[in-house]
Amino acid sequence: MRELVVAAVQMRSGVTPEENIRVMDRLVREAASRGARYVQTPEMTGAVQKNRSGLFSILKNEAEDPVLKAASSLAAELGIYLHVGSTAIGLGNDMIANRGVVFGPDGVALARYDKIHMFDVDLDNGESWRESAVYRPGELARTVDLDVARLGMGICYDIRFPHLFRDLALAGADILTAPAAFTRQTGEAHWHVLQRARAIENGAFVISAAQGGVHEDGRETYGHSIIVDPWGRVIAEADHDEPGVIVATLSLDEVKAARSKIPNLKNAREYRVETGVPETKGERVA
Question: What's the whole-model pTM score?
């Protein structure tokens, strides 16, 4: 039986990367002490900072980024897979990548993923977000092989785009991920159903570490880091918005079992969409 102990780290990142790194270090160590072989941190682990000039003042390129340096060392020290859900990486052209990185147990970066779908929305409560004004969207979906499973990488708003996760599942992903900084309003409305839907649709585990609470920059995020099994059952959840760790043991054979019971990935067919009124051929029906 293929099994993997996994953990999701819930944070409340502020505007100072050094302090966020200290929190990440403490919580990742807690997860590893509880047996986790794979540990995931949330979107924007390094800093939650909505002020553009403030964000640009702390930006580093990937090679110099302190969050990724710390994560690499931590993965190697603990002998774990450490998935930095995302952090802001400077691209040197007044744009930023919202980048997730998975480090192997030797501290080497195994895969990088830049968030594809930009959160450009106007919410009912007056919140307005335009990620595309600052972030360069990614163009490449990504899977990465762990020792007993294949992982598909997503970030936050990506969870609302089912075709991305379907393509990752078709590429062999047993585990899908969507580390997030969901707003409280959208989280309360949609967080759980989106996580469970992506798991059910793809017969895959879903792991989503989250930011939670009122942040230093005034943003409020939903928390509720979650792990869902391939049948859509929540097997671990932080039922709050406080920093902490959730842990679960994944039995990877459940992926094959779920996909055998409901083989929708195999049953999918090509089709086209027609709009308007199709032309009537033949005799008119009275």
Answer: 0.93
